[in-house]
Design a protein that fits this description.
The complex is a heterodimer of chains A (about 260) and B (about 1000). Chain A is an alpha/beta fold and about 260 residues long. Chain A has 7 helices and 11 strands. Chain A has one domain: Rossmann fold (3-Layer(aba) Sandwich). In chain A, α3 crosses α5. In chain B, β25 and β26 form a beta hairpin. In chain B, α13 packs parallel to α14, α13 runs parallel beside α17 and α14 runs parallel beside α17. Chain B is globular. The two termini of chain B are about 50 Å apart. In chain B, about 55% of the residues are buried. The chains are: A alpha/beta (about 260), B alpha+beta (about 1000). Chains A and B meet through α1, α3, β5 and β6 of A and α2, α3, α4, α14 and α17 of B.
C-alpha cells in the first residue's frame, strides 16, 4: 500500500482534489495538518509520498509559500531530510512548488535545504491568471514525468509563477544537470510568448526536479486534469487519458516498486 | 536572546514614536522598534501597473514609480536578529533586497499605512514565521512607500501630480492614510472603563424621538420609536444603549425588509407583504418536492441527490463597495460564504458567483461627482476584492456578469453568491435551553459599527466621515480556517445550530438563533482585537470571519479542542436560557434585559404609497443603410457585450477540480459559455448548472418586463448548457432606489409581480433572495439619482450527467443552424439602441408558456445528444449570438434572415438582427439529427426554423430580408474586436 501525506496548512486549498488524484491511481492519501506533524501526533516516516498541494499557505501575503517554507526549514527539517534520505518522493504543486523552492528543497544541487537559488516571482502580467498551457516534457531524471508524451496540457492558476534563477550560472547548472522537467510551449512546439508562457518564466521553465528526480515541483495543476470533463474543450475534442493522471501514476508505481 | 545591549542607531529614532518614556528609559528598555524595507531587484509589475494607471488618470502625467514594502516590528529584537528576520522571513534573495533600520515613519517617499483599527491580513502569517524563529510577542505593522519621479516637469507640477496620484489611486481614506513623519507606529488603545449608559427615551416628545433616531444613527421611523417608548414606559425605565442598539439592528431595513413586509398602496390597490404575495407564494403553490429549504435559512436548498442538497445564496454589498471597492467586494464574498456555512448545520462552499453593475470605465473624470470614486477604480477594486478573497478561500468563481450603465456611477452594485454542498441530514438546526453559545473565528473590533443601519440610509457625500469604520478589507485565511473547523465539527456532530455573524454582528446572529428560547450572553468574554470597546460596540460589531454555534454542554470541550488544533479561536460567550429574554451582561452587570418576542416582532412594517406611470421613452432615429458588418463589430465591442476575460481569468475558476464547463469555451478557450457546470461530488458526473440574468436598462422602460426578461435570461443560460427546466431554482436580488418615491416603489411592485407571473408559467420556484433598497446618491446640489431598477436573477439547475451538456461554439461545418423562438420588433432597452443613443419604447416581453416549451425542447435535445452547440440570444440579439458561435468554434455560418420566425414583421435587416426578444436559442444540429430535432420541436408547437448552415470558411455571412448580402465578417476579426474591447479601456 502506497501511503501519501497531503500536507495541509492554513490556506491550503487544493488538498482534496490532490488526494483524489492520488486515490485514482491506487494510493492511499491522507490530508495531514502541519500542526500534527509539528506536534508529533503524525509522522512523515509513515508515508512514501509527500505532496505539498496548491493554495495560499498562510495567505501568501509576504510572498507565496514563504511562511510554510520557514516552517518546514525550522520544524520539519529532520523529518524531511530523513524522508529524502530514505529515497521517498516529494511533489510540490503550485503553492507547493513555491514552498519547495523557498525552503531550498529545489533545486537542491548538493543537498536538501540549500540557500534559496531560484524563485517564483510575480507574473509579468502583474495579475493572478487561470488558463491552460501546453508543456514540453524534458529529458530529466524526474520519476514523475517518465514516459509522458509532449505536449501535456494542464491549467495554471497563480499570481506568482515566473521562474527566475539567482544567476545565469544557476540556470546553466539546472540545464546541465537535466533538472528542468517541464517547459511552457505551444501546441505546435514554437517558442512560447505570453500567454503560452503565462508568467514570463526564464527559459520557459514550468517545473524542475532535484538531481535524484525524486523531488519535483511544478506550477501547473496536474490534479485539475484527471477526468475528461475538466478539459476546457471536451465538448469538441477527443480526450484519451487526462494528462494529469500520469504524473501521479508514475509516483505511485515507483513507490510501490521501490519503497 | 541577549538583553540590554545598546543601539546607537536608536539615537536617531523619533522620540514621538514611543509615548510616556523619557529619552534614557527609551534607550535602555525593550522592546525595540525596527523598520524593514524590501525592494524588488527584478522587474516590478505592480509598479508598472501603477505607472500605467497614472497615465490614465491625468493626461500628460508620466511617472517612474518605485515601491518599497515596509514592515515595522516591535519586540525584543536586536539589529542582527532583525536582519535575520528580513533575510529568512520577509525578503526573497533572488528578486528582492532588504534593509533594516530603526523605525522612522515617513522616511521614504509617500508612505501609505492602514488606519488604526483596520485589520491587516498579512500580520498573522508574519507572526507565525517570527514565532517559528523564536520571536514571540512581536508587534507587526505593514505599509508601502511609493517614490515617484514625474517626467519632465517642475517641482510644483510634480507635487500636484503626486497629490492627484495619492488621492486618485493610492489612498482610500476609508481604510488608509499617508503617514506623516513622527506619527506613532503602534497606537495603544485605552482600556474600556465600564459605564452603564442609560438613554433618556420615556420622557421624549415625538420630534425628540425622531432626533434621537437620526443622531444615534438608529434609522428607526417615528412609529417604531414610539413603539419603543411605549415598551419602556411600561417597564418603567429608560433603555440602555445596548438595548437601543439591539432594537436598531433587529428592526433595520436590512434585517426585516420592512418595505417588502409592509403595506403598499399602489394606485388604490393594497399589497400586503409584497414578497409573501409574489415570490414566496409562487414557491408555495409550485410545491416542488426537491425544494428542501426555502426562504427561512441563510441560503435556499434544493435536492442534489439522495445524499446531498445544494444551497445557494446571493448577497449584495453595494454601499461598502461604493466607499471602498476592494474591501467592500472582499467582505461581500466573505459574508456570503458565511451564509453558506451558516445554512443548516453548515454547507461546504463549492462555487462563487459575482455580478457587478458599474458606470462605464471610460467615463470622463469631470463627469464623476465629488465624493464618488471613478468607475475604473471601482472596477479594479471590486474585481481584486473578489479575486483575493475567493481565490484564497479555494472556492471557484465561475459564473457572473459585469453590466455597465451610467446610472450606476454614484452607486455601483456588487452581488456575491455562494453555492454549497450539504448532507441532507444536516439541514435542520436545533436550539435547546442549556446549549452553550460559542463564538468561532476572528476577533471583534469596531468594524462596521452601524453597518446595518448605514446600509439602510441613502449614500451621501458625508457618509465617509460618519461611517468611517463601515468597511474592512477581510481576512480570507481566517475564514478558510473557520470553514475547515465548522465542516469538521459538523461531521462530528459537535454543535446543534449555527449561523454567521453578518450585518448586525452578534446582535443579529445570537438574537435570531435564540429568538424563541432566549439567551444570556457575557459580552466581556468576547475576544477583542484591541481594548476599549463598550458592550454596545461588542454586541453590534460587524467584525468579519466569525460564526456562532450552539453546542450541547457535553460537546463544547471537543469543539474547542478541534478549533485550537486548527489555530482558530473559539470562546464560550453565553448560553441558551429558555426564558425567552435577551439578557446581556458585562463583567456580571446587566446591560440589556428585554423580551425576545418584542425584539423580534415589535417592529412596524411600513405603509407606503406607490404610483405607476409608464415613463415616456422614444425610439432613436437609426440611419438606414448602415454597414451591418461594421455594426456587428461595433456591438461586439460594446461594454455589455465585449469579453470579460480580463475579469474572469483573475478568478480561480477550477480550484476543487470540479469544473465541467468553464466560463470560456471553443477552439481557443475564448468563446463565451452561457453557464458554468460544476460536479461537486468527486467521482460522480452529477452536476450543477449555474447561470444568471439581469437587464437593468429594460427597467428604465418597465420593471415588469425587466424582471420577466431577467428570469428568462437566467433560465436560457442554464438550459442552453443542457439543464432541465423542471429542475431549476431561482434566486432574486432586488436593487432599487428609495421606496419612499412612489414611482420607484411602483416599479418594485411590478417587478415582484412579474416574478410570480413568469415563474408560475415557467413552473420554476424561487428558493432564496435578498433586497437592497435606497440605492441612490445625493449630489452636492441635492439632486438624488436612483439607480436603474435592477433585479438580478441567479439560477441553479441540477443535472444527472455533466457529460450531457453543450457549449455555444460551432463544432463542425455542414451542420444545420436552427433558431428556436420568435423574433419581435423589441429593441427597447437594447444594446443596438444604446449604440444609437436611445432607449426606445418596445421592451422585450416574455411569453412564458411558450418559453417553457421551447426550453423543454432545447434542454432535452441537448441531453439526448442531438444538439452539438447551443447559445441563447441576449444582448445584441441574433447578430451577436451568431458571431460568438462562429468565432468560438472558428467555423463560419451562412444565414438567411427571411427564414427567421417573425421576420415578416421587419422591414429593416438591422432591427431583426439586433432585436433582443426573449426565449430564443440558436442550435447547431448535425444533418442526420434533423428529423429527431424537428420532431421534438413539432411536438411542442414552438417556432423552430433552419436559418442556415455552418460552413468551413470561418466567416459569418448573413443574407438580408431582400436576399442581399448584409453581413460578411471574418470570425477572427470579430473575435479580436470582442476580446480586446474591455482590456483596452482598462
Amino acid at each position: 500500500m502506497v501511503k501519501a501525506c497531503v500536507l495541509f496548512a492554513a490556506g491550503t486549498n487544493c488538498d482534496q482534489e490532490s488526494a483524489y488524484a492520488l486515490e485514482l491511481v491506487g494510493a492511499v492519501p491522507e490530508v495531514v495538518h502541519v500542526n500534527r506533524l509539528r506536534s508529533g501526533e503524525q509522522k512523515l516516516e509513515d508515508y512514501q509520498i509527500l505532496l505539498i498541494p496548491g493554495g495560499f499557505s498562510y495567505g501568501d501575503y509576504i510572498a507565496s509559500g514563504r511562511v510554510l517554507a520557514t516552517e518546514l526549514k525550522h520544524f520539519l527539517r529532520d523529518q524531511i531530510e530523513q524522508f529524502i534520505a530514505d529515497g521517498k518522493l516529494v511533489l510540490g504543486i503550485c503553492n507547493g512548488f513555491q514552498v519547495l523552492v523557498k525552503c531550498g528543497l529545489l533545486p537542491a544541487f548538493e543537498r536538501p535545504f540549500e540557500p534559496q537559488a531560484v524563485t517564483l516571482d510575480t507574473n509579468d502580467s502583474g495579475r493572478y491568471e487561470d488558463r491552460w498551457v501546453y508543456l514540453r516534457v524534458e529529458d530529466s531524471p524526474a520519476i514523475f514525468t517518465r514516459n509522458i508524451t509532449s505536449p501535456m496540457y494542464l491549467p495554471v492558476a497563480h499570481a506568482e509563477g515566473k521562474f527566475l534563477a539567482r544567476s545565469a550560472g544557476i540556470l546553466a547548472r539546472l540545464g546541465d544537470a537535466r533538472q528542468v522537467c517541464l517547459r511552457y510551449t505551444t501546441l505546435t512546439g514554437d517558442p512560447p510568448a505570453f500567454p503560452d508562457n503565462p508568467n514570463g518564466s526564464e527559459d520557459d521553465i514550468a517545473g524542475i526536479c532535484d538531481p535524484s528526480g525524486r523531488i519535483f515541483g511544478l506550477m501547473p495543476h496536474p490534479e485539475r486534469f484527471v477526468r475528461r470533463e475538466q478539459h476546457p474543450r471536451w465538448h469538441r475534442e477527443r480526450i484519451d487519458e487526462p494528462h494529469g493522471i500520469a504524473i501521479f501514476r508514475n509516483a505511485v508505481e515507483y513507490a510501490r516498486k521501490n519503497l | 536572546m541577549v538583553h540590554g545591549s545598546l543601539f546607537p542607531e536608536l539615537e536617531t529614532c523619533n522620540q514621538k514614536l514611543r509615548t510616556n518614556l523619557t529619552h534614557d528609559e527609551f534607550r535602555l528598555s525593550w522592546p525595540v522598534l525596527w523598520r524593514i524595507e524590501i525592494t524588488k531587484t527584478t522587474a516590478d509589475p505592480e509598479a508598472k501597473a501603477l505607472e500605467s494607471d497614472i497615465r490614465d488618470i491625468a493626461a500628460g502625467i508620466t511617472a517612474d514609480v518605485r515601491i518599497t514594502r515596509l514592515y515595522y516590528l516591535e519586540g525584543e529584537i536586536s539589529k542582527a536578529e532583525a536582519e535575520q528576520i528580513a533575510a529568512e522571513v520577509l525578503c526573497d534573495p533572488v528578486c528582492e533586497a532588504a534593509s533594516v533600520r530603526p523605525a522612522a515613519v515617513g522616511a521614504l517617499g509617500t508612505e501609505v499605512l492602514y488606519n488604526p483599527g483596520v485589520m491587516d491580513p498579512s500580520v498573522a502569517g508574519i507572526a507565525r514565521s517570527l514565532s517559528d524563529l523564536g520571536f514571540e510577542r512581536v508587534e507587526i505593522r505593514t505599509g508601502r512607500a511609493y517614490e515617484f519621479q514625474f517626467g519632465g516637469r517642475g517641482r510644483r507640477a510634480a507635487d500636484s501630480a503626486r497629490s492627484l496620484v495619492v488621492k486618485g489611486l493610492l489612498v482610500n481614506p476609508v481604510i488608509q492614510h499617508t503617514a506623516s513623519p513622527g506619527e506613532p507606529v503602534f497606537v495603544r488603545a485605552q482600556p474600556y472603563r465600564f459605564r452603564r449608559n442609560v438613554v433618556k427615551l420615556c420622557g421624549l416628545t415625538a420630534p425628540e424621538l425622531e432626533r434621537l433616531s437620526k443622531e444615534g444613527l438608529l434609522a428607526l421611523n417615528r412609529a417604531e420609536m414610539s413603539a419603543l417608548q411605549k415598551y419602556f414606559r411600561k417597564l418603567g425605565r429608560d433603555p440602555t444603549d445596548v438595548e437601543l442598539e439591539s432594537f436598531a439592528q433587529t428592526w433595520s431595513e436590512h434585517c426585516q425588509h420592512k418595505t417588502f413586509k409592509g403595506v403598499i398602496d399602489i394606485d388604490g390597490r393594497k399589497v400586503k407583504n409584497l414578497l409573501k404575495s409574489t415570490v414566496f407564494r409562487l414557491t408555495e403553490e409550485l410545491n416542488r418536492p426537491w425544494c428542501l429549504s426555502v426562504f427561512h435559512d441563510n441560503s435556499g436548498v434544493i435536492e442534489f441527490d439522495e445524499q446531498y442538497g445544494i444551497s445557494f445564496k446571493v448577497e449584495t454589498h453595494n454601499h461598502p463597495s461604493a466607499l471602498e471597492p476592494y474591501g467592500g467586494a472582499a467582505t461581500g464574498i466573505g459574508g456570503v460564504i458565511r451564509d453558506c456555512l451558516g445554512t443548516g448545520l453548515g454547507a461546504r462552499p463549492i462555487l462563487n458567483t459575482d455580478v457587478f453593475c458599474l458606470a462605464p470605465v471610460d467615463t470622463r473624470s469631470d463627469e464623476v461627482p465629488r465624493g464618488v470614486l471613478h468607475p475604473r477604480r471601482v472596477m479594479k477594486g471590486v474585481v481584486a476584492g473578489v479575486r483575493d478573497y475567493g481565490n484564497r478561500m479555494g472556492i471557484p468563481t465561475a459564473n457572473g456578469a459585469v453590466y455597465f450603465d451610467p446610472g450606476f456611477l454614484g452607486n455601483p452594485l456588487v452581488f456575491c453568491g455562494t453555492l454549497g454542498l450539504i448532507p441532507r441530514d444536516k439541514l435542520a438546526k436545533q436550539v435547546r435551553p442549556g446549549q452553550q453559545i460559542v463564538l468561532l473565528g476572528g476577533r471583534t473590533g469596531r468594524d462596521g459599527i452601524h453597518g446595518v443601519t448605514f446600509a439602510s440610509l441613502e449614500l451621501h457625500q458625508k457618509s465617509e466621515e460618519i461611517s468611517g469604520g463601515a468597511v474592512q478589507i477581510g481576512n480570507p485565511i481566517e475564514e478558510k480556517k473557520v470553514t475547515d473547523v465548522v465542516l469538521a465539527a459538523r461531521d462530528r456532530n459537535l454543535f446543534s445550530a449555527i449561523t454567521d455573524c453578518g450585518g448586525g454582528g452578534l446582535s443579529s446572529a445570537v438574537g435570531e438563533l435564540a429568538s424563541e428560547d432566549g439567551c444570556e450572553v457575557w459580552l466581556d468574554r468576547v475576544p477583542l482585537k484591541y481594548a476599549g470597546l463598550s458592550p454596545a460596540e461588542i454586541w453590534i460589531s460587524e467584525a468579519q470571519e466569525r460564526m456562532v454555534v450552539f453546542a450541547e454542554p457535553g460537546s463544547v470541550k471537543e469543539l474547542l479542542r478541534l478549533a485550537a488544533a486548527n489555530d482558530v479561536e473559539a470562546t464560550v460567550i453565553g448560553r441558551v436560557t429558555g426564558k425567552g429574554r435577551l439578557l446581556l451582561k458585562f463583567r456580571r452587570q446587566v446591560v440589556a434585559d428585554i423580551e425576545m418576542k418584542f425584539l423580534h416582532h415589535g417592529w412596524r412594517g411600513s405603509s407606503k404609497k406607490a404610483h405607476w406611470q409608464r415613463p415616456e421613452t422614444a425610439d432613436p432615429s437609426v440611419p438606414t443603410g448602415l454597414d451591418l458588418s461594421g455594426e456587428v463589430l461595433k456591438l461586439l465591442q460594446a461594454p455589455n457585450i465585449a469579453s470579460k476575460e480580463w475579469v474572469v481569468r483573475q478568478y480561480d475558476h477550477e480550484v476543487q477540480g470540479t469544473s465541467g464547463m468553464k466560463p470560456f469555451c471553443g477552439q481557443g478557450n475564448t468563446g463565451p459559455s452561457d453557464a458554468c457546470v460544476v460536479m461537486p461530488v468527486r467521482g460522480s458526473l452529477r452536476g450543477c448548472v449555474v447561470g444568471c440574468g439581469l437587464c437593468p436598462r429594460y427597467g428604465l422602460i418597465d420593471p415588469y418586463w425587466m424582471a420577466a426578461s431577467a428570469i428568462d435570461e437566467a433560465l436560457r443560460n442554464c438550459v442552453a448548457a443542457g439543464a432541465d427546466i423542471e429542475r431549476i431554482a431561482l434566486l432574486d436580488n432586488f436593487c432599487w432606489g428609495s421606496p419612499d418615491r412612489p414611482d420607484q416603489l411602483a416599479g418594485l411592485v411590478r417587478a415582484a409581480e412579474a416574478c410570480y407571473d413568469i415563474g408560475k408559467k415557467y413552473r420554476v420556484p424561487f428558493i432564496s433572495g435578498k433586497d437592497s433598497l435606497y440605492n441612490e446618491f445625493k449630489s452636492e446640489s441635492g439632486e438624488s439619482l436612483p439607480i436603474p431598477p435592477t433585479l438580478l436573477i441567479s439560477a441553479v439547475g441540477v443535472i444527472p450527467d455533466a457529460s450531457r451538456t453543450t457549449t455555444p461554439d460551432f463544432k463542425r461545418a455542414g451542420s444545420l443552424v436552427y433558431l428556436l423562438g420568435e423574433t419581435f420588433a423589441e429593441l427597447g432597452g437594447s444594446e443596438y439602441f444604446r449604440r444609437h443613443q436611445g432607449l426606445g419604447r418596445d421592451v422585450p416581453k416574455v411569453d412564458a408558456a411558450r418559453g417553457r416549451r421551447t426550453m423543454v425542447v432545447v434542454g432535452s435535445a441537448i441531453r439526448d445528444g442531438v444538439v452539438t452547440a447551443c447559445h441563447d440570444l441576449s444582448d445584441g440579439g441574433l447578430g451577436i449570438a451568431l458571431a460568438e458561435m462562429c468565432f468560438a468554434g472558428a467555423i463560419g455560418a451562412r444565414i438567411a434572415l427571411d427564414k427567421v420566425a417573425g421576420s415578416q414583421r421587419f422591414k429593416r435587416d438591422d432591427f431583426l438582427l439586433f432585436s433582443e426578444s426573449n426565449s430564443r436559442f440558436l442550435c447547431e444540429v448535425p444533418l442526420r439529427q434533423r428529423d429527431v430535432f424537428e420532431g421534438l420541436a413539432a411536438g411542442l408547437r414552438i417556432p423552430c426554423r433552419v436559418i442556415g448552415r455552418t460552413i468551413p470558411e470561418p466567416d459569418l455571412i448573413v443574407d438580408g430580408l431582400r436576399g442581399d448580402r448584409v453581413v460578411r465578417l471574418s470570425a477572427s476579426e470579430a473575435e479580436s474586436a470582442w476580446r480586446r474591447a474591455l482590456t483596452r479601456r482598462l
